[in-house]
Automatic annotation (TrEMBL):
Pfam families cross-referenced by the UniProt entry: DMT_6
Alphabetical keyword list: Membrane, Transmembrane, Transmembrane helix
Name of this chain's protein: Membrane protein
InterPro entries reported for this sequence: DUF486
Length: 123
């Protein structure tokens, strides 16, 4: 249950992170943001990123072995990175339709999944 909770919280966290980091690139398409200056966009992104931390911190605290969770620190980090890529790729497909994934992107993603396999493998 702690593994699933950790993963779900990381997915939520990364959804907010992706919106904070890249969502502002779409703000100019919304009428009420078209005149916002850079400082305003930074403040809005910080506000969105606050919610990232509201999910990230509990995910790491629940998930780490030292607190009774199933993951080592290294496993948590690799898991978070792969979740970040999955969320980012989904976000890109939905919101940035002009972007396309090429073969080298897929190969890189497969290599990252292999990294997860090796990090979690019990030798």
């Amino acid at each position: 249950m702690k593994a699933l909770s950790t993963i779900l919280l990381l997915i939520l966290s990364n959804s907010f992170m992706t919106m904070a980091w890249y969502g502002h690139l779409k703000f100019s398409e919304w009428k009420w943001f078209e005149k916002a200056g850079l400082f305003s966009i930074i403040l809005i992104s910080w506000g969105i990123a606050f919610f990232e931390y509201c999910f990230q911190v509990p995910a790491n605290r629940i998930g780490i072995k030292e607190n009774g969770g199933p993951f080592s620190l290294i496993q948590l980090k690799v898991l978070q990175e792969v979740i970040t890529l999955i969320v980012f790729m989904s976000f890109t497909v939905v919101f940035f339709k002009h972007e396309s994934f090429k073969w080298n992107h897929i190969v890189g993603f497969v290599l990252l999944v292999l990294a997860v396999f090796f990090i979690f493998k019990k030798w």
